Amino acid sequence: MKNFQLTVLAILGFASLNAQNLSLQPITEPQELQSSLFMNNASSSYAADETPTGHQLHSPIAATSLRVKGLYIVPVGQVEKPRAKEAIAAILAIMQSHYLKMLGVTFEFDPEVSVLRSNYSVTDAVDWNNNYNFIKTNLGQEFLNNRNIVVSVLEGTAGDAGGWGGVLKMTGTFWNNCYDIFINRPHMLSTELAGWSHELGHAFGLMHSLDTKNCLAKLNIDMGTLPSLLMQQTDKFRTLYEYPLAKEEKKMLLDSTYSVSCLAFRGDRPAPLRYLRLTSGQASQSANGRNVEMIEFHNGAEGRGTLARDASGKWLERDLLGTTRFSFNEVGRDDWSVYLQDPGRNVALQIDLYTSKVMYGTIGASTKSPIYNILWSKKSAGSINNPSCACAAQTFRSVSDHTWVEFRLPGGSSGQTINIPAGAHNKYVFPKCNRVWWDNLSFTCNTSTCKWEKTAGRWDADALCTGSAGNSPYVFVGEK
Questions:
Q1: N or C: which end of the chain has fewer CB within 10 A?
Q2: Phi, psi for 194 (deg, rounded to 5)
Q3: How many other β-carbons are positioned within 10 Å of the β-carbon of residue 479?
């Protein structure tokens, strides 16, 4: 793929993945309605408006929890990036808005990104089979039971990205640059995400556009001459939002009866339209009025941009390529809002994180009107390690029928992390063992809540008779 590496996950390439590894079973889809977006707008252009018109609203389907889930995987020997969860949530928000622009509907995503530590080396972690099975084993409720799509980001790895059967594999080749932009130039993040949305298209089932064209030709459907598209990037566009889908690709995503055989990368996931059900985006807010330093906004159509505080304290309104449009003075903050003024134009703005709106008015006016929707926000680095925030001692507990384990954490400082190695404790009471167990765990003193929170690993109980508690000073076990 021009300009960056994208894995061509050809069907034959997946033939080597055995049925045991993938657990691919034929699924029976419930009857699903065709999207009126295509029944009523069959000649729609390659790029639809951000806000769907009345006849473009997605056909009603049964309530479902199907969504996209972010997963940050840290292989053995790698160090977790301190703001990885925020960065991945921002990437998901931008991708969600991109699909809304292309389709008039979009997916729901979980704003809470999961973090898991892996015992794989970076070389083994990047292997498709290993990554797929790691997700099945460690995120089984989300992936197998809830049938969600998982965007896995592999720290410290290199190589091609991939997408197939409800899984995205994003390597450090893509992740490192995006994280750097999120930290240092967040207003430019949408310029680097074409590969991410492309792989999400694969995870929904789409092939590369040329392969889709060849497949549809066998069904007597002619896609004509292909322009540069999301799934066939012959040209590099300036931002993610400029990449379109072909109208046939849109129909394949939104009509479960259309050319199903050409949606070849779908695997065992439900039909794409069961994920693509939202008619507006989610506001991904990691910041509040006290600590926000940047937002990306849109006005429901083509108007997009950012507002960000620079080193001098000025707020700059920019387009997505970084060109400054206007400059504002910050005149106040409260828990949910930042108040800005441009005296030269007699303009007053309110960045309202509670309503996810940017409000517009004149200086001194008693009322303001919404002018932009906030897509995502970023908080300042100073709020990440707040020296005034401290975590009190806290205990986390897990029990079985006859055993228990407690993770007793002492008082800690903002941003501090405590790691606990994997272990187990069991007691045999006829007719079975009663075991509590835990993965490699990480607890972090949250800078916003000033409380300990589990940021990696998990615990549970079972009937196995193996394992020991180890010698961590934070682990206490007992029987009942």
A1: C
A2: -60, -35
A3: 12
Beta strands 114-117 and 68-74, pairing class: parallel
Burial of 62 (0-12, 13-18, 19+ CB in 10 A): exposed
The model's pTM = 0.69
Q: Determine which of 250-259, 382-391, 412-421 has the lowest per-residue pLDDT on average.
A: 382-391
Q: What is the pLDDT of residues 200-214, one digit of tens each?
A: 999 999 999 999 999
CA 478 distance to own-chain centroid? 39
When mean pLDDT is compared across 147-151, 245-249, 315-319, 410-414, the lowest value belongs to: 410-414
The per-residue pLDDT for range 66-113, each reduced to its tens digit, is 999 999 999 999 999 999 999 999 999 999 999 999 999 999 999 999
Amino acid occupying residue 267: G
Cα angle 13, 261, 6 (rounded to 5 degrees) comes to 40
